[in-house]
Amino acid sequence: MVLACMHRTDKDARYILELTRKMRETHDDVVTMTEYDIAFHVAIAQSSRNPLMPVLITSLTSAMRDTNPIVWKTGTHDDERLEVIDWHATVAEAIMDRDAGKAGKAMSRHFDEATLGLVNSGFN
After folding, report:
1. What is the pLDDT of residue 81?
2. Which one-letter DSSP state was computed for residue 50?
3. Crossing angle for the helix pair 30-47 and 61-74, nearest 10 degrees?
């Protein structure tokens, strides 16, 4: 998060924010929304300008395609699902503002909630 906040271009930041808008628009289609979610995380990794970050994040895309539908089912109401997208938007806005502390906290919350969703679904 720190590197993304430090090294992102304005174009990077706008794209990351745009991906959260697309996630919101497609939240009722978990497959499409997942592809935007993956693109969101890859874009953050690329904006860090650390060549290892995109490799690491890309290596997780298969797992994201498998686990996102599981986590998505734990949120039974649209407002719960939209809250997940709001966490992404908070990360994107923090990157736009170059606020590494806020971005890190928002991403930690996102990962914690995603993990909790997997646990609550019985995934192990």
Report:
1. 83
2. -
3. 130
Within 10 Å of residue 65's Cβ, how many Cβ atoms? Answer: 15
Angle at 66 between CA 36 and CA 45, to 5 degrees: 45
> Which of 39-43, 60-64, 120-124 has the least mean pLDDT?
120-124
For the entire predicted model, the pTM comes to: 0.92
The tokens for 4 are 């993304």
Do 40 and 23 meet the contact criterion of CB atoms below 8 Å apart?
A: yes
End-to-end CA distance of the chain: 27
- Read off the pLDDT band of 77 (50, 70, 90): confident
Q: 8: pLDDT confidence band, cut at 50, 70 and 90?
A: very high
Query: Residue 71: left if φ>0, alpha if ψ -120 to 50, beta else—which one?
Result: alpha
Closest CA to 17 of 115, 86, 117: 86
Residue with tokens 């720190």: 2
Structural contact between residues 57 and 9, judged by C-beta atoms closer than 8 angstroms? no
Give the residue from 66, 18, 24 showing the smallest Cα distance to 44.
18
